[in-house]
Amino acid sequence: MDGYRRVAALKIQAAQDRTHAVIEEVARVENKVYVSPGSQNILCFVRDAAARIEVLLEDQKPIASSSPLTEADLEIRLDRTTKLLPFLYELVGFVEGSDVHHSPGQLIPALRRYSQLILPTSEIVVSSKAELNYSIQEIAGPLKKLFGAMSVKKSCDLLPELLFVVNIPAVESEQILIHAVLAHELGHALYDRREVAKGLLPKIKLNEDLVKNLAKTIYEGQLKHGSPTPELRLRERVTEEITIRVNGWVKELCSDAIGVRLFGPALFLAAAHLFTSFIHIDKCSATHPPPRLRIRLMIRMLKQLYPVDKWRGELQSFTRDWDEVSAGQISGGSRYDQVAQETINEAALDLIADASAVATSTAKCYTPQKFDHDMAKLAPFFLNHIPPGEMGPYGRGTPVELASIINAGWHVYLCDFEKFRRSLHPQDSGTRFTAATKLHELVLKALEISEMKTAWEEARRDPKRGKN
Amino acid sequence: MYPEHRFSDLADSLRNGFLLDDIVLALARAEKGESLGEEERGVLEKAVSMLQSAETGYHWLDKPELTSETSSCAMLFARAVSALPAIHETDAFLENISDLKATASQLSKGGSPPPTEKIQLLRAFFHNTSRSELDRTDQLVGEGSVDVRRWTVIEE
């Protein structure tokens, strides 16, 4: 044991040296110019946390040298503590690609303002990397939960209440329309904050016989092959697989539903395009429902909230195609997936849609009236190559909201794209891609104008204006 | 589109692991006959809650209903099954969990300690749980980075 205690001391020492390396890495990257203050939040957190983790490691020395822990217990304890270092490296990795040279500068202030409108204490980091991966995650909550009971807790004061890290592929970073999917992640934040699960989950009824018979059926199937799983293991497996699935799927679906309320048809249109490009329509996981089910819910809600049958023909036809497809049978999947599918039936989808209304009751939601207005008033500007970032009489214009700009952009993309393409210079209309890039540029410019107008109005209203 | 759960899963796994390590340390001290402080008793109260949740998770299948705690109870049930590798029968499992809970509860309340063998069993249970949580952490860390044990050969 004495030999191990010396090895343990060395392990602690090596980890402490690595905390210094993390601090030096922060110093190397912190002087870059970042589009969002969220990047600096992360770097400040990492630097502070690294220093505190060094102290935490120091605190392990007396435990390593004289505690009654066995070698095996001590090895686990120290190994876990040193795992905090790759965890910090991962945080530094979030910042990579979020500087002004890499991330889409026009999008971020508008996105940040929108997030803060829905969740006033939130902050975002948008990083653009050379990988085909769209991901959005909230990291402040998990960090606070992790360090809440440790000496590193104080570092969490450097974080905003909610910190969204948005990763977009570098090659598609300017394809703004697809980024409407952020509304889904804001849905996650509202789902947690409004404790939607507490009220929603007990209302969703599981088919008791189906669940109970599942373990029996699996057991009998295995018995035929002569290798049955013991009852206890089977019970554990069935319980875990079903509860994780149903809870996870309901959470994802409700976040979609909240997103539809916040962002309107744009979330459905962005999600449908993303699903088409990347995922098999019936592919699901323990945490995510199949795209077919997600689209089914979104269309169901759009049909309830919007006069879909009065939309432009192209949009109607797009929605109708997806409606038909989403109503189809979900194929494949495990037996556990099938239980989750049976549980999340039409009635459950309605409960989820209702729960999303409660979750967004105090938030600013997109409305059918706004959609009609945006299609009629904003979309034509795009066709005339004018970014609609501000509306109203000259000198008294008001900034156009993010959701309105994106919805209008989608409308042009789906209903008037060929008309838009024909209106472009031949150099820009050669391929579908180059024409779409022009549309995205106009949408981004509209967001930039809207943001400038909003910031200007804020500055005008600032009571300290002219006094400093 | 895919909110990555990996980062929050990793944070959760580390958090659970640190708690389990503290439980193991408190039990090691109790086993050695040291008196436990308030903080250590607090940690053991959490051990009681974990065992209680594992028991609740076991019973879920008898009356499958959904609540916001359902999945955490199911997860703790699964961890408890893995931490008792020699137990295959349902009755024996419930009996074990009940005994472990009684031992943890007695320790968390202070007063006269339970017999050493009981503390050893509880410690072995939490050692196993702590070990499997570390495996999970390793797996999650591995998903996001290159395995440092693997050598890369580049042909020039």
What can be said about this structure in brief?
With 468 residues, chain A is mainly alpha-helical.
Keywords:
heterodimer; A: mainly alpha; 3-stranded mixed sheet; two-stranded antiparallel ribbon; 5 strands; B: 156 residues; mainly alpha; disordered C terminus
Description:
The complex is a heterodimer of chains A (468) and B (156). By secondary structure, chain A is mainly α. Chain A folds into 3 domains: 2-173, no CATH class; 196-359, no CATH class; 368-461, no CATH class. Chain A contains 20 helices and 5 strands. Chain A has helices at residues 2-29, 37-66, 71-82, 84-95, 107-118, 140-147, 182-193, 196-200, 208-224, 231-263, 265-278, 291-305, 313-327, 335-343, 346-359, 368-383, 402-415, 417-422, 426-429, 432-461; strands at 122-129, 135-138, 162-169, 390-391, 398-399. A 3-stranded mixed β-sheet of chain A has the order 1-3-2. A two-stranded antiparallel ribbon of chain A has the order 4-5. In chain A, helix 1 packs parallel to helix 3 (71-82). The radius of gyration of chain A is 26 Å and the shape is globular. Chain B has 156 residues and is mainly α. Chain B contains 5 helices and no strands. Chain B has helices at 6-31, 38-59, 70-83, 90-108, 116-144. The longest helix of chain B has 29 residues, at 116-144. The model of chain B is unreliable at 146-156 (pLDDT under 50). At the A-B interface, helix 3, helix 4, strand 2, helix 6 and helix 7 of A face helix 1, helix 3 and helix 5 of B.
